[in-house]
Structure formats: structure tokens, C-alpha cells
Design a protein that fits this description.
single chain, alpha/beta, 17 helices, 11 strands
Length: about 475
């Protein structure tokens, strides 16, 4: 029986691997042995390929060479990224053409560092959904529930891979919450980078206006290490750690927009966040209740499809027209009338987004960060989503808090803060202006030091005895 908490931080693992105190092949074999078929995190994997990369990393370490800070670290990759040797389905029923298997800069960085890719994780079809369901392939199961519950989407298998311990870091994407929702639902940390911060080349697109690449990690510390290793401005975590400000909760003023973001939360969700905020306040953080008035018009635009439905339809119609006829009915319903939307309406939506983002950015004059529940709802059971109406309402509410933050142009981090009334993980969303990714991680680190990481809050996950 294995638990995800058995492995140290990425920082410690990297140093142990380089010093020869741990072999990458041994670490990778341990992780691969933790993959649980019943949870179904992966769309594709190749254990021999993964172990071969691990052995190559060991050979480099033995020669006194470290190709990068993620060398020898087992990492799962969402099945939107092109990865050599793996098919790309993007959650659809058919394998995409070969050009979608070409790696972009993020995957190339992993390959050049001899990071060990342990497989490609399931995604909602073309990433257009927040719950993690997919009728073409088995939906991964949330590890924290005995009854089948969703893992969150669209990076559906990413958080599951971390909880079971088959991966120690996961690549995801986030357009309206696709990193933060599964992180919240599975008790992990999820980083939505600023729009344009990391390249989306080599990633099957959903929205050219909002797509971001990001990470799911076991802790803020692991997210920091990976960010430093992959971000083009750093490329080396030790430099980032040296420059990052060390913050304490007593130095922070946190804006709490209780109206809208705390509305209609399932039992225990708001309460878990409020308890976490009380802990921060007791440690000296200053909490200010304040509105984010741009949230409601941004959400109204989100409910209309924003620019996303139009941009996804355009991509499919021009690049993958044969895939339109086989779309998941839930994805097709969300596309709505995108094919008929006028250029005037599309451009008007983009202009409104820019206007709202500009207005919302000024709200940070009074606070260091906004904090909200990451997701308002408990991870639904599979049964709750069987009816289309049940899916539509749950999906909309799952995306509300994260989607609005994306529409307003912010970067954001989700970290676990407790459990809800169903005993499922609850996420706390930390929000900063676009471009403040490093400070976002510094704030997240300060909050995690007080609240504890996922292991401290949720306990160790243990695979059931076979």
C-alpha cells in the first residue's frame, strides 16, 4: 500500500537525486506502482519509456551533471499537450493529427531537463467543462470519496495523479478554472499563471483570448520549485527562491469579496474558507470585506459563452471539422449559437472583457490579494450529473468563482484549506493582478505556512487494500 505523502518536496528530491542518495529509476518505479486503475487518471502511459528517461537522468547525475531542476522527477501531462511518443486526443473520441503531438516550449523544457513524463492524463473534451466528465473515456474518480465523485475539470486526471502518488507534479491548462477546480476538488495546489506568461504553443487550444498553461502540485513549495524551473524569466528555482520576498501573514491585507463569491456555496464550503481566514486573522493578517463589482457583469458574459465558445468553434471548424459531429453533448450544448455569432458581437465581448479587467485591477490599490472559495460546490457524484439539467447547473456553479477571475485577467492560486460537510476537500483561491505571479506564490507560501499543506489539512491518502 502506498501513499502520496511518502515522497519529500521537489526541492529535497532534486538535491537527493543529484547527490546520488536516490535513483530516479527507483523513484519512478515507486510512482508507477501507485497508479490505480480504479481511479483512471491516465489516458495513455508507457512505463518502459518513463523508466528509460529515469535511467538517462541517473546517468547524468552519475557524471556530475544536472540537466535541470526537474531531472528525474515523475510528472503527469494533461492530454492537450503534445508529447513525443504519445497520442493526443484532447478528450475527443479520435486521435488528433500528428501535428498535435509536437511539443511546445513547456514540454520541451521538461524533455530537456530529463523530467520523467509518466503519462498523459484525462481531460474534458477540448477542455470545455469544469467537472471532469467525458462520455468518450472513463471519467477519473475523485480519490477522496468512496462513492464515485468527479475530480474537477478540465484537467480531470491531473489532481488524481498527485493524490495517488503516480506523479509528483502535473501539467494542466486553465482557461476558466481548469487547473484550480481539480486542485480544489482533490486537495492540491493549482497555479493559474498570468495570461501570456507561459507559452501555449504545442497545446490544443480552447480560447486564444484566455488560455493559460499552469501547474498542479502537492504544495505551494512544490509549485514554486516547478515555476522556477519552467518559467522563462527564471529557468532555475534557486534563483527564484533567493529573490522571492519572505512574507508573513501579519504583513498582508486581504480583500474578502463576500458578496457573489460566497453566494450559493454548498454546505461546509464557505465555512471551511471562513475558518481558514479566521486563522489568518488571528495570526495578524488584516481582512477587509469589499466588493468586486466587476464580478457580476463578467459572470453574465461568461454565461453567454464569452469569447470562448466562438473561439473553440472556430478552431474546430477550421482545423478539426470532422470532430464537430462527435462532440460530447455537454460540450456541444455549451457551444450554443457560437457558429451564428456576429463579428460585431464577438468583438464587443472582447472590448467588455478589457474594460472590466481594467476597472477590476484598480481594486488592488487597497489590498495585497483577494481571497475567495475556489469552487462553491462539493464535488458532485456521478449520479447527480446523469440528467443534462443536473450537469448544466453544477458545471456552471463549479466554474463561477474561477471563471470570473480569468475573465477579469488575474493570476490565481488555489490551495487546500479544509473539508466541506461531505468531507471533501475545499480550496482557498488567492488572486493577484496579472503579471504578479511571483508575488502570488509568495503570498500562497505565507498562507500555507499557517494553514498547513494538503497533507496536514486532509491527512494522508491511502490506496484501498486489494
Amino acid at each position: 500500500m502506498y501513499t502520496s505523502g511518502m515522497e519529500p518536496s521537489l526541492h529535497e528530491l532534486a538535491h537527493r537525486l543529484f547527490r546520488g542518495e536516490l535513483r530516479a529509476e527507483e523513484l519512478t518505479a515507486r510512482c508507477l506502482a501507485r497508479r490505480e486503475a480504479r481511479l483512471g487518471a491516465y489516458k495513455a502511459f508507457d512505463d518502459e519509456r518513463s523508466l528509460a528517461i529515469a535511467r538517462a537522468a541517473d546517468a547524468a547525475f552519475a557524471a556530475g551533471i544536472s540537466p535541470g531542476a526537474l531531472s528525474g522527477i515523475p510528472i503527469s501531462v494533461k492530454d492537450l499537450y503534445g508529447v513525443p511518443g504519445y497520442p493526443t486526443f484532447a478528450g475527443s473520441s479520435e486521435r488528433l493529427p500528428e501535428q498535435f503531438e509536437e511539443p511546445g516550449p513547456i514540454v520541451e523544457a521538461l524533455l530537456s531537463q530529463l523530467a520523467v513524463i509518466v503519462g498523459k492524463t484525462h481531460t474534458v473534451e477540448f477542455a470545455f467543462g469544469g467537472l471532469g466528465t467525458n462520455p468518450h473515456w472513463p471519467t477519473p474518480h475523485n480519490p477522496w470519496s468512496k462513492e464515485p465523485r468527479v475530480p474537477g475539470g478540465s484537467s480531470a486526471g491531473a489532481g488524481v495523479s498527485l493524490v495517488e502518488g503516480s506523479a509528483l507534479l502535473a501539467l494542466g491548462t486553465d482557461t476558466a478554472g481548469s487547473v484550480r477546480i481539480p486542485a480544489s476538488f482533490t486537495g492540491n495546489v493549482g497555479l493559474k499563471t498570468s495570461f501570456g506568461r507561459w507559452s501555449t504553443d504545442g497545446v490544443v487550444p480552447l480560447s486564444r483570448s484566455l488560455d493559460t498553461t499552469g501547474l498542479l502540485a502537492r504544495s505551494v513549495g512544490d509549485a514554486l520549485w516547478a515555476f522556477g524551473a519552467l518559467d522563462p524569466s527564471w529557468g532555475e528555482p534557486e534563483a527564484l527562491l533567493h529573490e522571492l520576498p519572505e512574507l508573513s501573514a501579519s504583513e498582508l491585507t486581504l480583500g474578502v469579496p463576500t458578496r457573489f463569491f460566497f453566494d450559493d456555496c454548498d454546505a461546509g464550503v464557505a465555512e471551511a474558507v471562513e475558518q481558514a481566514l479566521a486563522t489568518l486573522e488571528a495570526a495578524g493578517a488584516r481582512l477587509i470585506e469589499m466588493d468586486l463589482p466587476e464580478a457580476e457583469p463578467a459572470y453574465a458574459l461568461f454565461r453567454e459563452g464569452g469569447p470562448v465558445s466562438v473561439e473553440l468553434h472556430h478552431f474546430l471548424a477550421t482545423r478539426l471539422p470532422g470532430w464537430l459531429d462527435t462532440l460530447d453533448p455537454n460540450v456541444r450544448a455549451r457551444l450554443g449559437d457560437a457558429a451564428q455569432l456576429s463579428a460585431h458581437e464577438y468583438l464587443s465581448r472582447l472590448e467588455l472583457l478589457a474594460e472590466l479587467a481594467s476597472q477590476a485591477a484598480a481594486r488592488f490599490d487597497a489590498v495585497d490579494a483577494f481571497v475567495t472559495p475556489t469552487v462553491a460546490i462539493t464535488p458532485p457524484t456521478f449520479v447527480e450529473l446523469e440528467a443534462p439539467a443536473g450537469y448544466a447547473s453544477k458545471n456552471l456553479l463549479s466554474l463561477r468563482n474561477t471563471g470570473v477571475i480569468s475573465y477579469l485577467g488575474f493570476c490565481a492560486l488555489s490551495l487546500p484549506c479544509g473539508r466541506d460537510a461531505a468531507h471533501m476537500p475545499v480550496g482557498l483561491q488567492i488572486v493577484l493582478p496579472s503579471g504578479d505571479d511571483e508575488r502570488l506564490l509568495a503570498v500562497g507560501s505565507a498562507l500555507e505556512q499557517l494553514l498547513g499543506d494538503g497533507r496536514a489539512i486532509l491527512g494522508e491518502y491511502e490506496a484501498p487494500a486489494e
